[in-house]
Amino acid sequence: MGLLEWVKQALVSYSVPAVAARRCYGKLPPPRPPRAVPALEPTLTSTLPAKPIKRKKKVNIGSWIFFAVVLVFLIGPFINGLGVVLDPSKGTTATSVVLGVLPNVLTQGLILGFVFAIIALGYTMVYGVLKLINFAHSEVFATGAVVGYEMFTILQNVSMNPYLKLTLALLVSMIIAGILNVMIERIAYRPLQGAKNKLVPLISAIGVSFLLQDLLRLFEGIKRGQFNLTYPIPVELTAPLALPEWVSNLGISLSVKETLLIGIALVMLVALNYLVNFTKMGKAIRAVAQDRQTAALMGIDSNQMIMLTFLIGGALGGAAGVLYGMQYGTVNAYVGILPGLKAFTAAVLGGIGSIPGAVLGGLVLGIIEQYLGTVPSLLGGLLPTTDIFSPLKLIGAEYKDIGAFMVLIVILIFKPSGLLGRSTTEKV
Amino acid sequence: MALLEINNLSVNYGAIQAVRNLTLEVNQGEVVTLIGANGAGKTTTLRAVSRVVRPREGSIRFDGKDITKMAPDAVVRIGIAQSPEGRQVLARQSIEDNLELGAYLRGNRPEILADIRKMYEMFPRLGERKAQLAGTLSGGEQQMLAIARALMSRPKLLLLDEPSLGLAPLIVRDIFQIIANLHTEGMTILLVEQNARLAMQASDRTYVLEAGQLTLEGNSRTMVDDPRVMTAYLGG
After folding, report:
1. Nearest-CA distance from B53 to chain A in Å?
2. What angle do CA A344, A346, A351 make, to 5 degrees?
């Protein structure tokens, strides 16, 4: 046997499918004997040779230029670092600075990412069943944040276990935000379900978003007389967590509330996964998301499932609001706008309509944002003013928002279906 | 009294009249077929019975109850299940999930599981790959799944919309064998088909639909040789 044959044989018998098949069957199943096919009417076979369709690839120069600019912004910090590294007197400083903050950038990025992920789930689930971007979702999130603030304020002087306070705040804001989301669907979207133009419910969503922002502001203005609301978090929750030595040696520090945030987020993600994939209700929701008419033929009331989706999505948004307020301290009536848009970006990044996609997108975006908010400005500070890279000094922490939205645009240009999304070819 | 009675049914899509004054009945235990060319209104009729389209005029009675204005899920609840045109399995869910959702309105979990096992006996190929996503099945397997899913609601009346659509002749034969088996078990079936000859062989009575109106009806055995059936397809 020649070497070539041997390689071929090895490739076939050790290829992934072959190995997988052996794992399933013990050994490969014997080939089936060919089935006797009764003679049928002669079938028409195509006599035309298959001709590959040649398609000229359109080069969109504009998008490439744009992509290049984006790359410079995203990779800029690295170039920034490179500039410093190339300068031997600063090199070691830059490396140690970046490596020193990286573990904390990752943990803080994950925390932010979990908040984005939980908000993004609301967008993606509603999109799944209604093919509608629920732009009012950011205000459902803001409502959750404000309700959380109210709960913490009410419970401020009550002597009660701080964890119980957090649980109460979470539960109440989840219930209120969930019901609010259901009401939004009922009042602003359902009457427009028959609309021929898909833009009509979308405009309605934007309208609801503005309305809720100002209602929240009015409510807090009357009740508290102030615009920015500072979360009165029990001190037990803000205390730093005692971490094992090897973790803190990495430069990671976590407070109790941050650990709680990660834990609560994980519990909610696991619960949602169970609900959607393993319960009858979740399966029915997925059925409605795939094909409403077929679901109706199976006796599934699609309006009921849509309502449930809004309830779950709203509750997640409300919980995210409380977690956000607890983590970042201050909320106001307009607090939903930026996290909402970023969570929407996260949903698109992961593939809108995909639940694992929303989580992945949220985490990726959180880390990118945290990175852009920390590293470039640190490195910029190390640059000498006379350096040719000195314009990069201007990339400060404020650029983190630009990062998220550049990710959105890049995704929309190059992979509109997202990281885990399906390409949406509609069958006719 | 017939199990399903459709009286003077008319259905419009906007300005287009898809079905005009259709009157039809299906008796208990019967297989009735509704044949006709493309666009004759066959699928529309079934959709009107399942209440996913709204009839403009006429009435539909099932088991003595007027279902003309019922909600689609209520229609399933009283015992009408449909295997829709083009199969429409839930592609991103497993065979098992598809079957379970077929029994969405039933409560008794052990009974549902027993029925799922029964379906696997009836369609062994589904049982072999119960965890597989329905979208990865072949056309014939998807059709079997669509029929099994409809049966999961334990219907009194099964509506089958073009079960032979897009399938290889061998598979079509299998599917019609299944229909024949269901018939002998006593299932009442309203079958819509373009494959007129097969459909008539499998059924007791036949209705011929042309441009939204019934033009012929009668015993399937005598109609197989009726030249007028052919005319209905090719145009007079």
Report:
1. 10
2. 95
Cβ-Cβ contacts under 8 Å, A297 against chain B: 50, 52, 72, 76, 81-82, 84, 88, 150
Quick: pLDDT tens for B153-192. Answer: 999 999 999 999 999 999 999 999 999 999 999 999 999 9
Residues of the domain holding B158: 2-87+153-232
**Complex ipTM:** 0.92
Option in A284, A287, A297 nearest B84 (CB): A297
Domain-embedded: residue B140: no
List the single residue in A290, A299, A301 with the smallest CB-CB distance to B91: A290
**Is the Cβ of A283 closer than 8 Å to some Cβ of chain B?**
yes
**B150 contacts on A by Cβ (under 8 Å):** 297
Instruction: Give the domain CATH number at B210.
Output: 3.40.50.300
The answer to whether the Cβ–Cβ distance between B90 and A294 falls below 8 Å is yes
Chain-centre distance for alpha carbon A137: 14
Q: Where are the beta strands (DSSP E) in chain B?
A: 4-13, 16-26, 31-36, 57-62, 65-66, 80-83, 157-161, 188-193, 205-210, 213-219
Q: Against a cut of 0.80, is the pTM above it?
A: yes
Pairwise CA distance, residues A209 & A195, whole Å: 20
Contact of A231 with A325, CB cutoff 8 Å: yes
